[in-house]
Design goal:
- There is one protein chain.
- The protein has 192 residues and is an all-beta fold.
- It has one domain: Kelch-type beta propeller (Neuraminidase).
- Helices cover 0% and strands 43% of the residues.
- The strands form five sheets. It has a four-stranded antiparallel beta sheet with strand order 1-2-5-6, with no helix packed on it.
- The C terminus is likely disordered.
Length: 192
Amino acid sequence: MTLAGQFAGVHNGALIVAGGSWFPVSKWTGGVKKWVGDVFVLERPDGDWKRFALPRPLAYGGSASTPRGLLLVGGGDEKENVAACHWLRWDGRSLVVEPAAPLPVALANCGAAMLGERVYVAGGQQSPAATVAERVLLSLDLTQPGAGWQREAPLPGRDAFWARSRPLAHTFMSWAEQTCSRGRKARPSAAT
């Protein structure tokens, strides 16, 4: 099975790959995309994958590796995008899946990254049928996760989906593989 749109990251030294979508029969021959709720954990490069489950099948959300666990942000399935977020924590023997503060809006195709004590989420789309992307920038303070997600000033540049985000030298970088305005690629945007 070849998956796309997985959540991925590392916690306690283990690689965690969750969710995703695939075509059991090629889309070129009429196949229908399926969403999966599997979580795979690999502790060592020469080890065996261990299999667990998400609360529901999801793909195309953001993910950020943090000391608290791998944070899964939003995502969606064939019917809807979601605001739900989850912590995936590897304890050395099993995977603990816990709810995290939900986003203020449903988002898929967004980027997420940890910078300092915050996780930032940028871009994305509110529904699978959306024809415009969001210029949203959200942050979650990991020292006060109960306070929930905060809206930040939007990043400069075009609206973005299939956003990618990374911390770089104390700066949050976000860029898009696609924009919803005349099909042009977006340039990187940054927030410090």
